[in-house]
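G., before I forget:
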Amino acid sequence: MRDIPLSGMGADAGAVLEYYGALLKRYGPQGWWPILDLHHARKGVNPTKSGSINGYHPGDFSYPRSEAQRFEICIGAILTQNTAWPNVEKALLNLKQLDCLDSGRLLALSEEILKGAIRPAGYFNQKARKLKVFAEFYASLKGRAPSRGELLGLWGVGPETADSILLYAFRVPVFVVDAYTRRIFSGMGWFEKDAEYESIRSFFESSLDGDYKLFQEYHALIVEKGKRMRAEVVKK
DNA sequence: TTCCAGGCAATAC
DNA sequence: GTATTGCATGGA
């Protein structure tokens, strides 16, 4: 299996930044990661955004603004594994209703209550276990940021989830690779469909000279593009 | 009705 | 190391 994204196939650092600019111009700032409660007016929400438009904050990179929001992002990253965001939103709202968007309170929940709450997000048996494992780890951090290795060592946290948590909950400039990233860029001939996660990640990270804001926006734009591509296919 | 979403772990070779 | 399979809800 090929594991190096090959400059020979048309991708270089300039192209990476250029494509980011094109996506931003076309779709506008995305305002990821979505947060349940934005305590300010959602000025500038892009009304043409596909899927749920709740909780986005275009052009505002100040989230998370609290420990509770940081934990909420982490939980959302786990719940959205292979799952549509509107379903995740339902699960998060249920947890919020229980006042359990908090590592300690989530740990105190019974299995049955927890599974019931996250049921809309699918895979609720597995995800209940994943959330418990993560909540325990999160509590043990006592406010410090986790390393990528620590996250990957957790049962239920793979590379995409780890990188989403680092990027959106802890503002670490990492490039998140997801199914859309593979689809879009392999379609453009930048690398093979089955390229290794790590080789894609290192390719983008070494090509981009920017802070966490650039990485947050780039990933969000890729997802938006990917969703629209799918919508186009379905329409036909 | 079928298809599939902002993956991951377990298993089989 | 590579390929396959189970996990589950809700919207299109």
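Residues 7-235 of chain A form a domain with the Endonuclease III; domain 1 fold (CATH 1.10.340.30). The mean pLDDT of chain A is 91.

More on Monday.
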